[in-house]
Each structure stands twice: as structure tokens, then as C-alpha cells.
Predict the 3D structure of the following.
Amino acid sequence: MTDRYRTLRTTIDERMPRWTEELVEFCRIPSEASDIGALRAAAGWTAERLRRLGATVDIVEVPGQPEVPPLVVGEIGEGPRTLTMVQHYDVQPAAPHALWTTPAYEPAVRDGRLYARGATDNKGEMLSRGWGLEAYLEAFGALPCRIRFLIEGEEESGSAHLDALLDERADLRRADGALIEGGGVDALGRPVLTAGARGGVSVELVCRTLKYDAHSSLATMLPSAPIRLVLALASLYDADGVPNWPGLETGARMPTEAQLAAIAALPTEDLDATKAEYGVSAFIGGREGTAAWHADAFAVTCNIQGLWSGYTGPGGNTILPAEAHARLDMRIIPDQDPATVMAALRVHLDAQGFPDIEMQTFEGDEPAYWSDIADPIVDAAAAASEAVFGQPALRYVSMSGIVPMYQVCAHHGVPMTTLGGATEDCRAHAPDENYPLSGAADAAEVTARFLDAFAEQG
Amino acid sequence: MTDRYRTLRTTIDERMPRWTEELVEFCRIPSEASDIGALRAAAGWTAERLRRLGATVDIVEVPGQPEVPPLVVGEIGEGPRTLTMVQHYDVQPAAPHALWTTPAYEPAVRDGRLYARGATDNKGEMLSRGWGLEAYLEAFGALPCRIRFLIEGEEESGSAHLDALLDERADLRRADGALIEGGGVDALGRPVLTAGARGGVSVELVCRTLKYDAHSSLATMLPSAPIRLVLALASLYDADGVPNWPGLETGARMPTEAQLAAIAALPTEDLDATKAEYGVSAFIGGREGTAAWHADAFAVTCNIQGLWSGYTGPGGNTILPAEAHARLDMRIIPDQDPATVMAALRVHLDAQGFPDIEMQTFEGDEPAYWSDIADPIVDAAAAASEAVFGQPALRYVSMSGIVPMYQVCAHHGVPMTTLGGATEDCRAHAPDENYPLSGAADAAEVTARFLDAFAEQG
């Protein structure tokens, strides 16, 4: 470590206790999609924090739509190059609350980790970047480039209004590079960098067979909503649970040589770590080694995130349910069109004999976006990350998460990367989500070091 | 109507307002299986009501098991013949509460019907029989036979302790005839009599694929609990939703000639009424006319009464669920053995590649029971019912409901029947369960008239 960055790290380590309290405060705000009050509180908190950092803050609203959470734009620093940091202040729902060791919105520190909904995704990761800037300013006086935070409030529900918000100011999509919202290390501590983001298509299938729930004795005659839905859903998968309906992969771009090479270089022991973490002996579809990494990058998914019908309380209730619901989320890749995928699902359900099963939208859809995996911005992220974590960086084609980089970067082909200090067991989106505080400090340092490398590339 | 029964009916009609208040009071007790306090309150209310009728009451407990709701035994009347009236004071869970027009445990009268959980099944039906006895005593001074009420508190959850409770007193299963808990008229007002009861087998299928919920991006690799459960469930049904797994019908007794003749005599317009009531255009498996009645009597069902996995709240939550659950209830017929059916399901799931899917018991199982559809007790019920409703009675092989007549009647081959005033739109077990008050009065009259016919058969 050079003296330049030793000072920086000292600043970071000294400030971590206070910053941790700050993250605790931020995570107390239950900024779920269903709670516009909490979303606006989180936006206000975010704006205030950016101002304390020294940023100019602009709260961008969709005109005449106060129910849409605003885009918080924070700008700071000078220089020929501009870096966009894409973040969000909304969080996934914390339910089921009973599965949390401590309440989702009462942040608690245990064993060096902060447990709360949003601790990692994305409040902790957002603040880590801000802390990196704060430490950089403290250590070196001025930032080496222009930074633009784009912090939205609908990321977890599909960024439905992000395009409209970005359209409000002509310059918001102009940049020389972008950081995707998060990033971290694999199970062995190696930094993971990604140059792409999945897109997403979500749909709720609703089956109604009866005017109202019948007594289950009528199962000799009456059509059952859960049985019909089960049969429709089963038609979407092969025997191993791999989705195989026609049209799911329509429009998918072929991998580049550089992408295939990056995948071939990925370590298979990380796959074993994933198996161990979730307690599984094998992946679906016999996907092992490079084939598993290939699926991770390119396989279009069709996940059942929620399924419900009839009586689900304690004991039993002998009803024949009139309705059944399944929420599916599909993770698409470039150049798939969400509407085309959805239309193909409709055609498939009709062809399988389920024209009566309704498809309802429950959140916004997003196209995917890849930038060049060999772009210099990824090299800059690699250099900063390798310096902090002391291990060679791994390059992934794409985040497996759905983030709205298409909306931010596709207009001008802005190259992008991830960087950060999250670990694989952060449980983003799940109960007991947590953020390792040492990883937070590392993320701050990586951010600061990256600024230098990025600025030098201009 | 003879003068004898004119007086009786006048008494019934005069007392209906007071009796309705009594039913309202009874239905306020939320005697669901999960609430032993409410169950004991309902048992106490029942005992007190029987005492007011003039019955000798015996509260039978399973020794040393205060968590088991007691059997309330009420005895009244003298004569050479004994009639058992099998009833229950527990109710199905009222959830989902949001689907009720008025709260399930705040009984409300609208358009001549009392709406509440238990209004028909079985609090209303139980009281109607008591009211019939009260009117008979008022009109004629003494009952023509011995009556024994057997009123349990676990009927809706499988009567797990009824055998043990009946064993507590040697004479409790001795009788010359028995009334099954309810009964009523079809959509055209024709009395429906049944001489059998389905048995039931219940099982919760539990699929666990992960230690905890994963982020749905891992759907490229990790096995999904809801997808696995969907595939397992789909293996239980044909394309039309008719269960077809090997072993479901193991042990089923062949229909008798008398049963087949009874089925052939059933009116197909009732089937149309059922379709209209539930808003369906066709029954499953192409079952129409006599084939539908045959299924009603003899087809073994495999109903999905509840199904759940992952996130089911508002909005979405991009998780890959670690667990999925389905509760099945199967309605079996004589001479099927519940344990054998359950074992066959296990064999089927294993053979289909789902040995990991657990089978958990959630309520008691019961064998089915049929008595002779041509027994004189059915003639007595027919005579009483035809006199009150003015239409010829229909004879069904079996109730489609699961009631514990095997436990009560099989030891001594006691013949049995139904009778009552419920209508097809009473919504038993469903939200907005209701009991037509005119039907309640009719049920009381039918009960009283039946006593004469039954006593004369001695």
C-alpha cells in the first residue's frame, strides 16, 4: 500500500463507527415499494447525506405524479471525465418477517455484520461509495473527476419511471463510465467485476375456475384452480425444473468471444461454495463447471417467486379453491424484448389449453444491457479491487441481478462495471440480509482508488 | 297437513325469532380447531342448551388429555328404539376473513339467511334438530323414542379422538338408527337423503430445496422448491385435473345394484344447477349426467385445499423460494384404508423422482361408511321430508362430506340417513357461509315428523 492510500484507509477505519450509525439510521426507514411515505423519507435522507458530502443535489420528479418516488441526483467533483454511480434507496419487502433473527427494520450488529433489510442492497453499498468519496476528499482535498449519483426509488419493483425521470434533464445519461449499484467478492474473497446487467420480465398468472370457493367434496366434479395452475406451470419446465417453453429465449444475443473467454476463466470452486451455502448437492439441468457459469451468464430464467391458493393457515380447511396465483420473474439478456417474451408465454399457455389463465403485470419490465467485458473501466475496477483485496479479480459477463443499466447506459453506450465489498452470504432480498462492516470499509477504499484509475483513463 | 303437525309447525314458527337469536349467540363462538378455549366454550354452550331441552348431559373427556375437546352426550326420551344424532360444535376456519361480506363471527341476518361461520355446518343444523325435539315436546308432551346426541368438537379436523371418546362409555355406539350431521334440499327444493359418508385422508406435501430463500437470479442453477412441488403435484392429475395416480383407489368397494339404481334415478338438472352456482360450463373429466353422479358417489378425490410458497404479499419479491407446501385432501370410500392410500402416494412420489418431498399429517384420517340405501330408516326420512317439502326425496349413496359415521356406526352396522333444511348455496366451509332461516324451521319440522316414523318402525 502506498502512503497515498494508507492515509485514506486510516480515515476510513476511523470513521467506520460513525458511518455504521449512519447506516443503522438509514436502514430504519422501511422504504418498500408499497410505502410512498417511507420512500420519500428515504429520498430525503439520501439528499441530505449527499449535501453533507458536499454534492449539489437535484430532486427530480415525474411531473404531476407525486406517487412516484423521485430520482435523487447528486453531483460533486470536477474534471474532464464523468462517472455515474447508479444506486437506489428503495428496498425489497422484508416479509416473511417471522424468518428474521432480529426485526428487518431494527438494524442490529452481530459478529461484525449489520443485519437489516437494505443493509447491503442497496443502502449499505450506496453509503460505502459515498464514504469512499468522503475519505478521498479528506485525504486528498478534491475529487479527480466529476461524479453523478443517480439514486432512484423504484429499482426493486422494476424502475418503471426511471426513463421518464432521466428524460427530465438532458444531461443525465451522458457519462464516460458508470458503476452498477453493487459489487463484492466471491466466497474465496476474490473481487467480482461485472460488465452487464440482466433485464427482467415479471408476470402474475391468475387462474379462476369458480365463482367462489367450494366445499372440497365437490372435487369429484368442479374444476380446481390450484390443479389447473399447477398443470399450466408444470408445462413451463422440464423434469429437472429447467424452463423450456418456446419463446422464453426469443431475441437473445449470441455471446461474444471475449465473454466466452471470461466465463472459461471463472473458478469452479465458487460453484461448490454456492452449493454449500444453500445446502444443495447439484445444480439444475446437470449444470456443472463452465456449463454452470454459462447458464449464470446466458440462461434465461423463469422463477416462481410466489405461489398461493386456498387455505394456507394452521390446521386444514376442506375447500376447493376458486382462485390460484403464481408470480413469475424471468431474467432476460440482450437483445430480448420484454413484450415479446410475455407474448410468447401467452401463446404457450393458450397452446397448452390454458387460455383462461390470466397474465397480470405486477411490476415494470426491463431490457438487459451488456457493455464490453474488456473495456478499460473494468481494468480500472480490477486494479483498485486487486489492490484492496490482494487477489486477482474475476470478470463476469453480467450481474445476475436486474438493474436498470439499460435505461441509464444504452442511449450512449456508456461502459460500466461493478465494484464493492459485499460477500456471497449477504442474503440480499432474503430474511437476515446483512452487510459485513469490514466489507463496507473495503468498498469505500476500492471506490476511492477506482476514482484515480478512472480519471487517469481520460 | 294433519292437525297433529299443524300445531307443531305453529310452535316452530312462533319460536323461530327466539331460536334465531340463540343461533346468533352460538355462532359468535369462534370454535375453530386451533382454539381450545373457544371449543370448550362451545361445548359448554351445547351442554347447557341440551339441559334446557330436558336432556341428561354427560361431558365425556379423553382421560388426561384436556387439550382434546370433549364429546357432549345428551340423552332424552323413552321408548324401545334409540336414535343417535351425530353433530359437532367445532367449525372450519373462517379464513380468508377478507372475503366475508360481514365478519365470520359477527352473525348477521340478510334476506332471510343467517351469515356466520358454522351457521349451517353444524351449529345451525344441530340446533334445528334440537328445535324439532323442543317443538315435539311442546306439541305432544313426550318423545316417541330414545334420542342420543353425540356432539363432538373435532369433526372439522378429522375426529381423531372420537373413537377414544366413544370407548369411554360402552353403550354409546348402540342404536337402532343414526342421523348424519346435516341434510337438506337440492337446487329445486327436493329433499336429499344419504345413506353413507365419505372417509378422508389428508396430507401436507413439503418440498425443501435450499437452506434458505435465495435471490431469484440464482434460478440459473439452484433447484426451486415451488417448481419441484408443481412438478410433483402435476404428476397426480391427468390433463383435465382428474387425479390418476396408482393406488388412489386401492381397496375401493364395488357399488351395489341398489346404489347404482339410486344413482340412475338422480335428476341431471341438479348438475346444471351446480354448474350455474359455481359458474362453470363443464365438469372435470367430461363427467355429465349419470357419470357425474357416479363420480359424486364413487370417485376418490385428491383435492389441493391449500398451496403456498415464497412471497405472496403485495407487489413482488425476487426470491427463489427454499420451501413449498401443498395440502391435499382425499375423499375415500368403503373399504379403503387411509394408511394404504397414504403409502401408495409415497410410492408414487418416490417413483416419479420426488423422494425428497415430505408427507406430513395435519389432521386425522377417517374410513368411509355406507349403510343400505334401501334401509327403512331412509324411508322414514323420505316420508318426513316429502311431507314438509312437498316433493319426492332423492336418495344419494353417500354424503360428499367426510363425517365420522364409520366410528359411530360401523361396530354394530347401524343404519343411517340424513335429513334437514340446508340449501346448496349455504357455502359450508367457504366465506359467507349462511343458513336459510325458513330451511331451519323446515329442518325442525322434518326432525319431529321423522321421530314418529322412526319410532313406528320398531
